[in-house]
Amino acid sequence: MSGKSHEALSTFRHELIAVEQKNVLLRILAHAYHCLQACLQEERSMHEGEGGKSEKRLSTHPEEPVDEATQLEEEITECCKLLASRLPLTLEEVGNISVAIYMQVKEFTRKALLAVNQLDDRQKARGLEVAKTVPPRPMYFGHYQQLIYNQSNPTIPSSRSMVLDYQARLKCLQGAADILFIGENRYLSEASLYPYEFLVVLRLVQLARLREPMVPPFVVEIQDLLEQITGQRSSFIFSDTRDDIELAGAEYPWRTGLAPLTNCRVSQAPLRQSDLRPFPRRCPLDIVFGLESVLRDYSELNLWDEETDDASRVSRGKDGAKLDALAMKRSVILALVFNHLCYFHPKMVTLEDSPQGLSLRLGLTQDVLSTLKDVLSNPPCSGLQSGADFAGAALPETCKVTQGSPTGHIVILQVSLSAGKVAFVCMMGVWLLWANCTKDNAQVLTECSHVEKDFAFDSTQVGKE
User: For the chain, what percentages of helix, strand and coil (3-state, to nearest 5) are there?
Assistant: First the structure.
């Protein structure tokens, strides 16, 4: 072996060891934090059970003893802060990891919903096969305990059949879907049913938030997603509106007052590859074409009583199967918009129950989409795909590009139009339309005045304003 080859191999070995050491340290910190939080939760439950909702007696004088439960909580909090100070991740690294987590959680959630919505009886039969060969094990943290258990007695014969890998993955997806539908963690007895790796990441995100005085809202939303998929927090609380009573009578840009409001849950509709294939996300122009198509399909759904022909309205009302199929198609369209084409955090969207309700809620008309197509399909934007392409191009003054992190894992493209601004977010090469303006009900979802702050890990302008 030549000297250069030996040096390159040695460098690779040292880098690999450093990465593995960091990985082990992160898992140890996550495990320790998890144990402290579990202890704190158990103590709180015991205290509430014994004393009901009695108020804790706080110390008002240095010599006055504090309540035992309060003292324990303070000590655990200090221990957690000590763990957070040892976290070997910078804020920029947390941002890069958050992007990867976001993409993996979205894909895992989609597959979990598919695991409980099989296409045919054959798939359903496979889904009903319970892995009874896996003996009950106590709650553990990560994969290592399971590996140790399986390999501890390899010479002892067993009458149990081996569980196939796809069965274990399927049951994990089904368990996650169960958590999503129920809205809580039931502490499933079989370890294969629980997405523990997301629990590890959740604890690391919580440690990062404990250490940093302020983090971008994107990290907070990542924590929400992880808490939801691990059952630490119910998914039913995430909505895009705050006050339905006030909203019902308000005059907002996305309200006409001619149709009632409807709440649509967009987090439980399964999206198959056949649904996603027509809608690539390689560049912002793909997103515009996809939205143009789905908004047109939504407006053409025969769900609303706007026909002038009374006979067609009566016949449609009698066809229950057709109405069910249309309602399912509507759910798929909403899931395509808010789970695939757009960056949208809530699990429920409120819009007018009309053909134009979705378009109005997004703030995207066909004229706006047509203008976007003209901007993105003509030079200098034509042919640009990745975030790096847009960051390095000489764009017109109507386009502004910012990077959420120095590594370029997050790139934001804002396009100024006569009707306002529209923003696109690129994460790991996947483009999404910003539709996450959910703090102010008076705004449409694509209002993007705060999009840069949501991803401001190290925001650097590289385009023109």
Answer: 50, 10, 40
The DSSP line for 350-413 is EEESSTTHHHHHHT--HHHHHHHHHHHHSTTTTT--SHHHHHHS---TTEEEEESSTT-SEEEE
The reported pTM is: 0.80
Peptide bond into 380 cis (omega under 30): yes
Token match 């759904």: residue? 301
CB 226 within 8 A of CB 105: yes
Copy the structure tokens of residue 34.
Answer: 């998890």
Q: Domain segments of the chain: what residues?
A: 247-361
Distance CA(142)–CA(200), nearest Å, equals: 7
Residue 21 identity (one-letter amino acid): Q
DSSP state of 234: -
In whole angstroms, give the CA distance from residue 281 to residue 309: 40
Of 443, 441, 439, 405, nearest in space to 425 by CA: 405
Q: Contact at 8 Å (CB) between 212 and 321?
A: no
What 280-284 contacts at long range (C-beta under 8 Å, 24+ apart), as own/partner pairs, is 281/340, 281/341, 281/430, 281/431, 281/432, 282/385, 282/429, 282/431, 283/376, 283/384, 283/385, 283/386, 283/431, 284/372, 284/376, 284/413, 284/415, 284/424, 284/431
HEC string of 242-270 equals CCHHHHHCCCCCCCCCCCCEEEEECCCCC
- pLDDT tens string for the chain (465 positions)? 677 777 888 888 899 999 899 999 999 999 999 999 988 888 877 777 665 544 444 444 555 555 666 888 889 999 999 999 999 998 888 888 899 999 999 999 998 888 888 665 554 444 444 333 333 333 334 443 444 444 444 444 444 444 456 677 777 787 777 777 665 555 444 545 567 888 899 999 999 999 999 999 999 999 999 988 887 776 555 555 555 545 656 678 898 888 888 889 888 888 999 999 999 999 999 999 999 999 999 999 988 865 445 545 445 555 777 888 888 999 999 999 999 999 999 888 999 999 999 999 999 999 999 999 999 999 999 999 999 999 889 999 999 999 876 677 899 999 999 888 999 999 989 999 999 998 888 889 999 999 999 998 764 444 444
